[in-house]
Amino acid sequence: MQHSREFLLDCYQSMVTIRVFEERVHEEFATGKIPGFVHLYAGEEASAVGICSQLDERDAIASTHRGHGHCIAKGCDVHAMMKEIYGKRGGSCGGKGGSMHIADLAKGMLGANGIVGGGPPLICGAALTAKYLKTGGVAVAFVGDGGSNQGTTLESYNLANVWKLPVVFVVEDNGYAEATASAWSVAGSQLGRAAGFGMPGTLVDGFDFFAVYEAARTAIERARAGEGPSLLHIKLSRFFGHFEGDAMSYRADGEIQRYRNEHDALKIFRRKVTEAHLLDDFTLDAVEAGVVRNINEAVAGAEADQMPTEADLLTDVYVRY
Amino acid sequence: MPKKTYRQAINEAIASEMRRDHRVIVLGEDNAGGKGAPGEPDAWGGVLGVTKGLLPEFGEDRVLDTPISESAFIGAAVGAAATGLRPVAELMFVDFMGVCFDQIFNQAAKFRYMFGGKAVTPVVIRTMYGGGFRAASQHSQCLYPLFTHIPGLKVVVPSSPYEAKGLMIQAIRDDDPVIFFEHKVLYDVEEDVPDEAYTIPFGEANVTREGRDVTIVAFGRMVGFANTAADELKRDGISVTVIDPRTTSPLDSETILDSVSETGRLVVVDEAHPRCSMAADIARLVAEEAFHDLKAPIRTITAPHTPVPFSPALEDIYIPSVAKIKAAVQALAAKVPA
Ligand SMILES: Cc1ncc(C[n+]2csc(CCOP(=O)(O)OP(=O)(O)O)c2C)c(N)n1
Ligand SMILES: [Mg+2]
Fold first, then answer.
1. pLDDT digits over B59-81, tens only?
2. Judgement on whether residues B187 and B213 belong to the same structural domain of the protein
3. Do B311 and A314 touch (CB under 8 A)?
4. Backbone dihedral region of B134: left (phi > 0), alpha (psi from -120 to 50 degrees) or beta?
């Protein structure tokens, strides 16, 4: 598929934004400024962006506990996200949700999720809405390799196909669920599971934006055409621990460095677009510099923002009570 | 006596029961950690390290890591218990009960009654609860009232390391399904804990402070808060009894009623939501059984009727505090001059 220069620049900007955002959250967490459980998406950028760059505001996604990348790729405001992660009043959720619950329903971002396997059933519902209201929208459920073993996920495969819902199930297989290897925890295979539920499944190199894009394009087109759900099994790696503070003794020595050197989605993207003379290094460097400035501003804005106050504690439980 | 953390005390209790009875097994997500991975085995020992060291001692047949499939493995623990094992299963955060509650409340809890007294289901489900970790709405709840509501389940809410060890050993030896609530903020709290095994019976409250003016009943982490409040109030001349029921089911109503008959004033401190809660339950008990002993209205100090907020600024005011407990006791003590 031939991509326009603007599109490629947008995608690169999204991926770099995720990377710089996460690297920065990692640093700030270490200084003690960020509270709570924080799970970083760095290393997995090509998946979120390869998929979400083909979605628009009709389309919904449901994310996981590792949600920052999906949020950014779906167009959430990084300044509001950073404030949320800091627990500030100007955050995406007014400081009530934090890293694990960033959401922007107006953008079709149905939320990061603290419950593994929480998203797929919700995505069946979002797809049902799209189908019923004939919006043309599709709904994408991201789950991890660990989340692929949850009953809710497997039930959703069945329901989505029985109802021929416009769903794409995306299994982001980064090799681990917490400290447990997916090579051990997943019986059978992701593609075998897709086949078992009668939907197409595709194995995808998650370090390659273009591979993700093409596989997602087919699945999204199929969903939009009313032909039902598909599954993408995306192989990738996380560059940080399960959560911030994880010593990662379960990983091999040098594993992360090897991924960073040889399987960095940003470097691979850059190599491909420059070799094909679609974009040049100078332009890409400028994108990176702009992103760094933006994230610096986001952090400064988050630090300067107010904490929520006692009056905020009791609001937002109900629409009316 | 050696000082041990709440985490160590629980670990020690499980290990000593595993040594004593080969039918005791442990299962849960990353209870060892590193399964199938290239690095270290026993890499985690549970998310907060409570089961660390069990794998090297007892091996993979007795320390089972699980996929993220709570319905299946909590249910498997229940089924194994009903057929001869004594599993100690971990439901990591109690908030995750949502994906496996059927196996607990429709299966484990009801076998004995539905099957006419013929079933024995000695399963222990360990689970973390409580606020203070900035872990937000889906990782911070105090859901023990929901389990307490269900006949057939025993519910344990240990308030300190010493309590945790004795209650865990009791839980493992108990023949009924037991839900064991571990407050994550207590894991690093230390106290003298004997090396040898001991049990603390269920349904026997612990009176941690004795006083004449006001009775406080508190649960889990709130017991420590109530003790601090009582110690500070003593300096102001208010003498407070603090009761830690230890188990919400069975509940030692006698100790509570006896104390209220002496003090005539009751404050219940519960980190859970106020509606249909332990606070409401104890208030109901005292209103019904000790109405004539009361010299003042019953007061409850609980979290509000809202989910647990993320922001530290909100979570700190969400969780009941020593200051709120003291204010409630002072207001009650002032109602009737001594
Ligand atoms: C129902 C439920 N069970 C367990 C957890 C604890 N938990 C949070 S993330 C996680 C691992 C998820 O692994 P995976 O789905 O592969 O996603 P990854 O972290 O690798 O992105 C676990 C076990 C949870 N949040 N919810
Ligand atoms: Mg994973």
1. 999 999 999 999 999 999 999 99
2. no
3. no
4. left
Any idea what the Cα angle at residue A276 is, between residues A273 and A277, rounded to 5°? 85
Measured in whole angstroms, the distance separating CA A77 from the mean position of its chain's CA atoms is: 14
Find the domain containing B276 and state its range: 206-334
For the question of residue B139 being annotated catalytic, the response is yes
Q: Is the pLDDT of residue B336 over 90?
A: no
> Any residues with CB less than 8 A from the CB of A269 and at least 6 apart, and which?
A11, A12, A15, A46, A209
Q: How far is the CA of A177 from the centre of ligand 2 (A)?
A: 4
Work out the average pLDDT over A172-200: 98
The C-alpha angle A133, A135, A139, rounded to 5 degrees, equals 100
- ipTM given for this complex: 0.96
A279: its two tokens: 């974009």
Query: From chain B, which residues contact A within 8 Å (Cβ)?
Result: 29-30, 33-40, 43-44, 47, 65, 67-72, 95-96, 98-99, 133-139, 304-307, 309-314, 317-318
β-pairing verdict for B3-5 and B190-192: antiparallel
Rounded-to-integer distance, Cα B299 and Cα B63, Å = 45
pTM exceeding 0.90: yes
Count how many domains chain B has: 2
Q: In chain A, how many domains are there?
A: 1
